[in-house]
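Box 3.1 A note on notation
Throughout this textbook, protein chains are presented in two layers. The first layer is the amino acid sequence; the second is a token string describing backbone geometry. Keep the layers aligned when reading.
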Amino acid sequence: MFTVSPSKKPLIDIGANLTHESFKEDFSDVIKRAQSANVQHLVLTGSDLNDSLKAITIATENPSLFSATAGIHPHYADQYNVDTKSKLTELLQQYNVSAVGETGLDFFRDISPRDVQIESFIAHIELAKQFDKPLFLHQRHAHDAFLSILKEHRASLRHVVVHCFTDTAEAMQDYLDLDCYIGITGWICDERRGAHLLNCVDSIPLNRLMIETDAPYLMPRNLRPKPKTRRNEPCTLPIVLETVASVRPETVDALAQATTENAKRFFGLS
């Protein structure tokens, strides 16, 4: 299905939406392809209560290969209420839930009202404080509001990653100034939308850089031969790694080792 040269060093995909229905029929094959590409651990993204529970179930069955996040994506922020808070609180006490999220702000589509997104974001921040867990964050077209909230709470938080970063060099520096990690996806492989990242990804300190696929989204457009499917998989993570390495001073192997160590530190992986 994919022709990807495996990484020489083990990789960690910090953001894979493998509870997505598109993986239902061939999940085991997807995992085999990931392992063949030397992706040795995957953090499964929880985007709502149902997905979070599924991610935790998968991680429980194979904790050496998977861990999970638990949260409610800003698209679904209108689902956050007293009941969901109680259920999310229970999920976050599971040993293999490595971060709170996905949470944040998305003003690009405004699927949930902005004020509701802000309330949900702050509620997730408070949960991260309560359980002393890292935050797995999403921000799109909402930098000013997102940064303002993050600044207010950052001193009380543990680790923070702005995952699937697609914004400007200035926004990136704002997050780095708050000692955040930055997650880079196949967006950087898109010559139409992601070319600007090639000019600023080298400004991320090596100890604050992580890589991810955000599968099934964001298929690297520089993958050759061009696949027939639009569904991305974790096995394409080496393409993201190589593209990032092409504009940084480190070798591919050195970058692989650093991003893996960063992910272990961030998510508390052994």
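The beta strands are 11-16, 39-44, 66-70, 97-106, 135-140, 160-162, 181-184, 209-211. The chain has a mean pLDDT of 97.
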